[in-house]
Structures are given as C-alpha cells and as structure tokens.
User: Fold this.
Amino acid sequence: MAKQLTTTLKHLLTSHRQLETDAAMIQAGMDELHQMQEARAERIVGRLKNASSTILTFGDASQGGRPEDEGGDNEEDTME
Assistant:
C-alpha cells in the first residue's frame, strides 16, 4: 500500500511540475502576444496621426485659396 501511495505521489508531483512548466510557457506566449499587439497598436496610432495631419495639412491648403459655398446652391441647380 505504501509503495502504491509513493508511486501515486511521485506521479502527482511530476504532473504538477509539468503543469507548472506548461503554465509558464503559456504565460510567456501570452506576454509575447501582448507585446506584439502593443507594438502593432502603436504603429496603427502612428499611421493614423500621420494620416490625420496629412489630411489637415492638405485640407487647409486646398480651402485657403477659394471661398466656401455658404448658400449650398450651385449655379447649375438654379438654371433648371
């Protein structure tokens, strides 16, 4: 009986160590994935900032030379 308990205990300890190793590997993978997602998010934010500043720059330049249409009616609409 004692031999069987010893064998069972050894098996449980081995299984426990393996589970701890697996958990550490999973955690390391999750940490790496999180870092990859953070880096990707930072690149996306950088692209969005660049795009918005480009849009604002070109928007200001294109609207600076012509007055805005306040009435909303085109000449073609009144000719009909």
Q: What stands out?
A: Residues 2-57 form one domain.
